[in-house]
Amino acid sequence: MLSITAQRLIGAWHLQRWELVNADGTRTAPFGSDATGLLLYTRDGWMSANIMAAGRKPLSRANPRTAPATERASAFDGYFGYCGRWRVVPGGVHHEVTIALNPALVGTLQVRRARLTSSTLTLSADEAVTAGMRTHRLVWRRTPRRIGPKRRTRTQRNER
Q1: Residue 7 and residue 23: Cα distance in Å, rounded?
Q2: DSSP 8-state assignment for residue 63
Q3: Cα 71 to the center of its chain, rounded Å
Q4: Distance CA 44, CA 145 (A)
Q5: pLDDT per residue as tens digits for the range 111-124
Q6: What is the CATH number of the domain that holds 130?
Q7: Count: domains in the chain
Q8: Which of 3, 59, 75, 145 gives 20 to 30 Å between its CA and that of 160?
Q9: pTM of the predicted model, to two decimals?
């Protein structure tokens, strides 16, 4: 287990799983076991978290504003995202939400407990629900620093 520092969080993280742990111990996956997501922490204190269910149906129209309300609602239900400022606190990280798919999150402070290993970040948060409390547990894996072939600079391309 590594201590949580800003330097260790900076970068991109891919979602491995998002599970809800209910008070009775039952577990569910809000967007299914094959959900995908990306969490970004920048050096200058900004963050972005985006998660979506796999297999989301495309809208029937290119312009989402002209798609039927039922399709738009389904798209909303299969996606979660917000961004804002972030900072490390003892035992975790705080996300100060400035932009969100869900308008109710804008202006909120999202408190996350954090556990970190060399390549895995686990963020947890408790939520009060009718049946008591449940815990959201999101497991993220560090994205490799460089993916794909190295890009050439303009000078290198012109030398060919």
Answers
A1: 34
A2: S
A3: 23
A4: 18
A5: 999 999 989 999 99
A6: 2.40.128.280
A7: 1
A8: 145
A9: 0.86
